[in-house]
User: Fold NADPH flavoprotein from Marinospirillum insulare.
Amino acid sequence: MLRQLHSLPGLLAAIFVLLISVTGALLSFNPVLERATTSVPASGQISVAEFVSQLAKHYSEVEQVTRTPTGSLIVYYMQDGQVRVDQVDHYTGQAIIPYEPPAYSRWVKNLHRSLLLDTYGRALVGITALTLLLLAISGVMLLVTRLGGWRQLFRPVNGTLIQRLHTEFGRLALLGLLVSSLTGIYLSATTFNLIAEGLEAEPELMQQVVTGPAAPIETLTVLKSTDLSNLKELVYPYPNDPKGTYSLTTKQGAGYLNQTSGEWLSYQPHNVTYLLYEFIYMLHTGEGLWWFGLALGIFALAAPLLAITGVLIWWQKFRAKPRLIANSKANTAVSIILVGSENNTTWGFAKTLHNNLVKAGQSVHTAPMNQLTNQYVNAKYLFILTATYGDGDAPTSAKKFLAKLEKTSKKPSFSTSILGFGDRQFPQFCGFAKQVAAAINTKGWPELLPLETINKQSSQEFARWGNALSKKLGTQLQLNHSSVQPKTTTLVLDKKTTHGIEVQAPTAVLAFKALKNNLPYFEVGDLVGILPPNNQAPRLYSLASASKDGILEICVRQHLNGLCSNFLHQLPLGGSIKAFIQPNPKFRPVSGKTPIILIGAGTGIGPLVGFIRHNQKHRPMYLYWGGRSLNSDFLYQSELHKYLADKRLTELNAVFSRDQEQAYVQDKLSLDATKLGELIKQDAQVLVCGGRNMANSIMAAFDKILIPLNTDVAILKTQGRYREDVY
Ligand SMILES: Cc1cc2nc3c(=O)[nH]c(=O)nc-3n(C[C@H](O)[C@H](O)[C@H](O)COP(=O)(O)O)c2cc1C
Assistant:
């Protein structure tokens, strides 16, 4: 619901948001330019009387003096029977230039205020401001829900580059967009008289008419006591009119002056509504508060970027949604597939299952989990494929599932199989799939296969589940699916060093270059997907370099039957691979100066060494790493010693399981418990990279280390201070 609320108005209003924000940003430069070309005296320096006396030396028939919000003084005067307008100097009253705002500026202003469409345009602009407000609020709510609370609002976000850009622009410009949209709505409402401006509340100022000859203007008492910085407007009486009065408006109020005595004939301070209007006008335009207006203008530039990235995200999602062929009705299908998904990748897996079952001759009904009904009268199998979000929460298309399940009472004719999609880096790995499995178990629904989980959309794990399912159904299914194949780049092997052959752990450090120096963008800790020849299932490797290093570097351990690892180990220098980048923004050191504890084993050293390499600011970094033998598989040995010497690395703790010490990395952690506890007290972040078993042992060791601190790994994980990249 929140998502629809965010994306629908966003799509409809994108073009208007684009127009209004770009013109708003352009206009925000006007007060800055005006300010730069005008020297404004400080308050208390010069009175209105002093100024008008100077003015009288250059202009004989002044009609009116107006001070713009930025401080420029504009004089309207008669010359040769025509009204002319000049911008004049504050001190001398001399003309600076004829005053005429540039035509383009007026055009931009009109476009911003009314899209050049008068009343209808003004209404459209008002609606756009309202939409912008709705988008800002629903966007924040969406982010808060996805990140698991207000306190997490500034946590790094996952997703594609476009999704991350959309979030970052949004977070950056949020306050500015809220101010621009709220003040814009207010100004629109005053245009359509839905809110009072306050001017109409001013009483009739002319209370009495006094006649008498006009005294020299510089002698008028009120003008002498009014500071020029407070002047808004001074309208002169007609020349030689004995009943004439000056009309004076200042920042504080307005009234009429006796032209003989210079005293107030009447005076009315501005009311609160008017002052509020002026304040909001100033906030919106920056006129009178140029730096604020400029900041708003710059933030407004985020709006087109948000509109463009927002439309791209919508388009990506639209395209990613699989079109299902032969999707039978719920009440006729033999197999029911229910899908819980937020970002659509689970739909891709569901489509592969759907197509395979259809090919095997079954009638299949595939739908979102929210559409659970009790109409599956013909069904023999119910498959539930679901992702997990937040802290073990349901994805959007499954939010209503548990409540609907609770209400179903009939014993079903089908047996169920649940497949959870998740990411082991989250404390609640496949938490929602587990909840669903528990709820179905409580209902007593028969089980076809026990709950299975898929980490990081692994196509291998999915194919394995497919094999188990094939056996159960007695039908051979080919569940070959990988998430939507990203565009690949061809890379050539530039350098290769191999270690660990003597200890039966052949491990290669491979550095690739792009064919035409066009490496895609990536950072240390992101993942590279590599497609082995004649195979569509990519293997993911953690990156030890960033694209700015000019190389793509990975560490690969050769596995006996590993299709991709054997291919990479046998690849000659100059040999090419096809690869794509999968961002992994969570697995990075948090910004700041707090210590970083890097822990890994075997090839897990890859991204850890990359973080150290890029530690130009010498923040404290402690490395714990486990290998087999110092003389055989100590990857990056000389490089790490170089980093120790130049202070990019604070401490190097390497342990070896097949040397005399026979130690694993978790043993070293336990030995260093006191020191590590101290580092955690200093807000250190822990980054772990390596195999799942090693990561579990590290977690167990750390839980013990954290006992005296009254915390544990699960808590550190929720704070983003314990992150894993495991495989
Ligand atoms: C913001 C966010 C929160 C996530 N939370 C969890 C989680 O708590 N547990 C988990 O196992 N996976 C979590 N994941 C991983 C997704 O469940 C996983 O990537 C899944 O394959 C996405 O499927 P979908 O594209 O169909 O939504 C999260 C992903 C994101 C982007």
The pocket of flavin mononucleotide is lined by residues 146, 158-159, 341-346, 387-392, 395, 421-423, 426, 428-431, 457 (CB under 6 Å). The chain has six domains: 2-30+105-194+289-314, 40-103, 199-274, 323-473, 489-582, 596-726. Residues 549 and 723 are 24 Å apart (CA to CA).
